Every structure is written in C-alpha cells, then in structure tokens.
Amino acid sequence: MTIQYKVSEESFDTLDDSVKGLYSQGEDGYTLNVDGVPKEDVSGLKRKIDELLTEKKTVQQKAIEANDFEQLYNSSESERQKAVDELATLKANLQQQQVEGQASKVAASLTKDTARANLLSQQISSRLSLVDGEVRVLDTNGNLTVSSVEELTQSIKAEYPFLVDGSQAAGGGATGGSSGAGDTKQVSRSDFDAMDAVKRMKYIKSGGKII
Fold first, then answer.
1. Strand ranges for 75-152 from DSSP E
2. Is 199 exposed, middle or buried (0-12, 13-18, 19+ CB in 10 A)?
3. Where are the domains of the chain?
4. Per-residue model confidence as pLDDT tens digits over 132-161
5. Do the Cβ atoms of 124 and 159 come closer than 8 Å?
6. What 8-state DSSP symbol labels residue 168?
7. Residues 128 and 102 sit within 8 Å (Cβ to Cβ)
8. d(Cα 111, Cα 126) in Å, to the nearest integer?
9. Is 33 helix (H, G, I), strand (E, B) or coil?
10. Is there a contact between 33 and 2 (Cβ–Cβ < 8 Å)?
C-alpha cells in the first residue's frame, strides 16, 4: 500500500538532505509518499519518523545551548580576569601608600623643612617594601634585609646629613665653601619645586636657600 506522512515546514527544515528528497511540497506542508509498505507497518514507520524528527531537534537544541554556554563562560571569564586585575592594582596602590606613609613619617622626624623632607622621603621609600603586611627594609640593590626601620633611619642620617636638621653640613661653612663670594644662593619655592630630585639635593647640599 501507499502511505502519506505530512510534516510542517519547520519539521521539514530539520530533516537531512538525503531524506528531504522523499517529500513533495503542498499547500499545507510537505508529504512523504511511500509505496509498497504493508498495512501493519504503517504505524511503526510513522513512529520512527517522529523519533528521528524529535532526535534531530534535541541535537540542534543541545548545540544551541552549548554555544550559549561557551559565550556565557567566555564573558564570565573576561569579567573575572578584569576584577582580578583591578584588585591587584588596588592592592599595589595600597601597599605603595603604606610604604610612602612610613617614609614620610621617618623623613618628618629628621627635618621640619618641607623640601628636605620630600627629598628624604623619596630616598627612604626606595629602601622600603611591604612584605606580608609588614614594612621591610631593602638594601641599595632592592634585596630584603634584616635591618629595622630605625637602623635605616640612622643610615639615612649618615648618608644625607645635609638634609637633616641640626647637621653641620647644612650650615654656614658649607655655604661659604660652595659660593666663594659670601652671598647665599636663593631660589623661589616654585623654582625649587621645578628641579628634579638630584638638583634639589645638590642645591640644598651647597647651602642654597628657598624663599
């Protein structure tokens, strides 16, 4: 006998190309005509076709869901990495602030002059690092030492006596030796601030004054 099995256009689109050729298009969809099939096998054939259609739809849906999951995962991973980077930057900034705060504290204990304190703070902060939440002292090569901040302070005082209050190196004798003319060097605060760290230190060491 001849059987006819109709499917909608949507279902037809899910079929393999090798199967589509067995269908003919009509006004209400696509019809499968099969000749020579025993009557008792008609229901089984229809059921098999339904299973194949359902299976293909399931595979297509899983593929769509897998693609959506991949996009979601990639987006989530990108956001996670962005958060990690921002956290690392924030942590580094907080550590630097803590180091600079300690350096400023030590510098303020050595001089009341703001310009000298800034110079001292730069030198001191280059010798400090935050390790496991604790400020540690570095040597001149940037390696960790067992020295304390107090020991570093004494070292800075010996290395830069001309920046420390009460040091003879910053007194009149140093000025006279550098100028030779008896006139004290003077620059405005803005001109001094415009100098780099090396020039500032050299100027103060020579006995220059800031007005």
1. 128-131, 134-137
2. exposed
3. 98-210
4. 888 898 888 888 888 888 888 888 888 888
5. no
6. G
7. yes
8. 18
9. strand
10. yes
